[in-house]
Write a structure and sequence with these properties.
CATH architecture: Orthogonal Bundle
Distance between the termini: 67 Å
Structural class: alpha+beta
Number of domains: 1
Strand content: 5-15%
Shape: elongated
Radius of gyration: 19 Å
Helix content: 55-70%
Length: about 110
């Protein structure tokens, strides 16, 4: 009998990543989590001036965008940065940048000819 392979999660959608980061509170939360240290709701609530209920909603948006992950540890839920969202956005930015570089190179060759 063969063991079931775990399902690979799809890469986050860069549009969702940018939408999530477009909110200043969520941007700040990603910045706070960016050092790699896991943080509880209590810790995060002391770092941003919003209610715990609002904070939970923001963290759920970050999770859905692939920017944060949550795990229960004892009685607390700890949130960590999830690099998948940032990697997806970086890949998209790289592709767009390559397109612009190619367009600028074509324009440069055209002007020089």
């Amino acid at each position: 009998m063969c063991a079931a392979m775990p399902k690979a999660e799809p890469a986050p959608n860069p549009a969702n990543v940018f939408a999530a980061l477009g909110d200043p509170t969520r941007f700040r939360l990603v910045d706070r989590l960016g050092d790699g240290a896991p943080r509880s709701i209590s810790t995060l609530a002391s770092e941003v001036p919003i209610s715990r209920q609002a904070l939970t909603k923001h963290l759920r948006v970050l999770e859905a965008a692939g920017l944060a992950s949550a795990a229960r540890e004892g009685r607390e839920t700890l949130y960590r940065i999830d690099p998948r969202g940032l990697l997806a956005a970086n890949t998209w930015i790289g592709a767009v940048s390559a397109q612009w570089d190619a367009a600028i190179d074509r324009l440069k060759r055209h002007v020089e000819d």
